[in-house]
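Many introductory courses stop at the sequence. We go one step further.
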Amino acid sequence: MRIKYTTYNARRDEDIVHVETDRCNVMLLNPEYSRGSPLHPFRYAKVIGILHAEVGHAGSIGLRGPTDKYHSIEFLWVRWYQVSPAPVTDLELDRAELLPLSHPESLAFIDPNEVLRACHIIPCFRSGKRYPDGIGTSKIAEDGTDWNQYFINRFVDRDMFMRYEWGLAVGHLYTHRDAVAAYRDIVEKSNAVHEEDLSVRGDVGSDGLPSLQQECSQDEDDGEGKQEQEAGGKEDEEKGEDEDEEADVEDDESEEDSDQDSDDEHDRRVESEDEKEIFMFGTD
């Protein structure tokens, strides 16, 4: 059986349920749950049969004449889990156990349209099996393979995790009525955490709110410190530019002096060569 559903981010997805395999568990809404209730928001069931029937209304007994047409109705035959929610303060998974077949409410027929999606049920191996010899009451229900306890894995994927964050998922339409209350709870919790952080730092006044005067004075001190740093940086830059200009001027003057010295030396060499020629050959 394929179960179509809308994910937390308003996309379409599907799960496949196979009877007599590990992929046979489904989850449904708990009609008795409301936000803030101590009850668990979902119900869980193990599918032991995917059935359909041709149903029609025959009327009163002994009524003659044509009867209504038969309609095909699909339904699921399931075994219910009994949920034991984990404490809110403990980082544990919720637990569940399959109701024994002798329990009057262990079996039921449900509409497939009521199924939200398939769920991930993990056996609690430490608890052991209900029937150590593997022989149960019914071969159809296969209760001989039951474990005493199971874990409900809410972290199997992102959509499953968001189903337990009641009212915060856009695609989970059944939680929209509690979306505003969930948002207010988040805002209140975040404000409480912020106030705790401020109180630890010592920035909270006698009324429990941050001191505006302290914040303003701190901002002014920070602004003055930044201005002083900027002014000091500008002065350092100007000094560096002046030193660079003086170094460039000194370099130019030294180059000019060296050029003048080289010209004077050249003139002296030329004059000495002319005197040598006059001494050797005389004048005309």
